[in-house]
């Protein structure tokens, strides 16, 4: 590295000696008390926006309430009334998946623009994204390139972070918090507590990544998830649509399966998880400042959760392969694909009449 470091570990370890435990673990230099206000505003915005766009299941709201009329006349309800898109009895399932398709579409496009702008491909420089593909050691998650260093940008832990990334993180945390909030106003599915755990884990990991300034890793992890979820939720939305709108259902489902394998298995494993787990390599590009996981703020926590997520990816991919078999069989019979999250696909409860005596 010559006479200068492309990281700020020297500065961090010098400062941490005079700081308490909490201070030494709040690394992101832009964090302030204003973040709480921005988070609350974004959370309120996301909660209201989802209600206006997709609403909630009408059968859990009092019909005399003004909320009942609003949630039955959302933007997607108006769209459905005009074009008759949703299958009968599955309007909320259609709206719910449409909403998530919109969110993941926005998140993917925004994140893609962020990554592309920092990649170096647009201005023919060695951006950190380009360097990640050239050197798959994981070093460029933490180091700045020579070009960035000449621009007075600093590497991790005190890595520079622009406002576009910073507020994107706050929006992500507010979105998933709103998802956790909305679970209370959905029909309780058999995996309700699994989704509670999922949303809580997502929020905590985003918060941890935000505080520890692991934003480069965080952006890539969000990217490999969003790009797959776009295809997933478009497929699910089409599945709950009338047959005349299902022309591209098979195409998007195939895209979902292959994108899952490439991004969440191959790219995530070989370009993120394995490089960040190799301590021998990490020692070489941290100039001896990091010799074990205990030297890293957070210890083994990030690596543990990276591998835990990898195990979940393998498990879900196994389920996807099983689901693909069902998809092929049902598609050949023109039957609807059932959502394994729910025992009852319909939006309304079906009340079975008790048999009369003597029958």
UniProtKB/TrEMBL annotation:
PROSITE patterns cross-referenced by the UniProt entry: TLC
GO biological process per UniProt: ceramide biosynthetic process
Keywords for this protein: Membrane, Transmembrane, Transmembrane helix
TM helices/strands, residue ranges: 36-53, 98-121, 164-183, 192-211, 217-236, 248-274, 299-321
InterPro entries xrefs: Lag1/Lac1-like (IPR016439), TLC-dom (IPR006634)
Domain TLC: 96-329
One Gene Ontology molecular-function label: sphingosine N-acyltransferase activity
Any one cellular-component term (Gene Ontology): endoplasmic reticulum
Cell location: Membrane
Listed Pfam families: TRAM_LAG1_CLN8
Top-level taxon in the UniProt lineage: Eukaryota
Membrane topology designation: Multi-pass membrane protein
PANTHER family: LD18904P, LONGEVITY ASSURANCE FACTOR 1 LAG1
Protein name as it appears in the record: Translocation associated membrane protein, putative
Organism: Plasmodium malariae
Organism taxonomic ancestry: Eukaryota, Sar, Alveolata, Apicomplexa, Aconoidasida
């Amino acid at each position: 590295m010559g006479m200068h470091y492309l990281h700020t570990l020297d500065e961090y370890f010098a400062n941490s000696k005079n700081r308490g435990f909490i201070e030494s673990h709040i690394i992101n230099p832009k964090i302030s008390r204003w973040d709480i206000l921005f988070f609350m505003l974004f959370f309120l915005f996301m909660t209201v926006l989802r209600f206006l766009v997709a609403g909630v299941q009408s059968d859990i709201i009092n019909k005399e309430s003004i909320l009942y009329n609003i949630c039955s006349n959302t933007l997607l309800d108006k769209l459905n009334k005009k074009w008759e898109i949703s299958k009968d009895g599955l309007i909320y399932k259609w709206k719910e998946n449409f909403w998530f398709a919109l969110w993941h579409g926005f998140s993917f496009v925004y994140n893609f623009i962020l990554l592309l702008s920092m990649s170096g491909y647009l201005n023919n420089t060695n951006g950190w994204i380009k360097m990640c593909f050239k050197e798959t050691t994981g070093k460029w998650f933490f180091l700045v390139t020579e070009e960035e260093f000449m621009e007075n940008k600093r590497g991790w832990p005190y890595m520079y972070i622009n406002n576009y990334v910073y507020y994107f993180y706050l929006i992500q945390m507010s979105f998933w918090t709103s998802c956790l909030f909305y679970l209370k106003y959905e029909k309780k599915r058999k995996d309700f507590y699994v989704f509670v755990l999922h949303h809580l884990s997502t929020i905590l990991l985003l918060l941890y990544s935000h505080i520890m300034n692991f934003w480069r890793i965080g952006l890539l992890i969000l990217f490999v998830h969003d790009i797959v979820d776009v295809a997933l939720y478009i497929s699910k939305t089409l599945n709950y649509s009338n047959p005349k709108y299902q022309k591209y259902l098979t195409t998007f489902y195939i895209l979902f399966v292959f994108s899952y394998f490439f991004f969440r298995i191959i790219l995530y494993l070989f370009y993120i998880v394995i490089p960040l787990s190799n301590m021998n390599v990490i020692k070489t590009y941290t100039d001896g400042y990091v010799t074990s996981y205990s030297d890293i703020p957070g210890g083994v926590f990030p690596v543990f959760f990276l591998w835990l997520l990898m195990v979940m990816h393998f498990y879900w991919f196994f389920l996807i392969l099983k689901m693909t078999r069902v998809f092929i069989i049902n598609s050949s019979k023109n039957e609807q694909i059932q959502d394994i999250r729910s025992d009852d696909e319909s939006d309304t409860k079906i009340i079975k009449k008790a048999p009369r005596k003597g029958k």
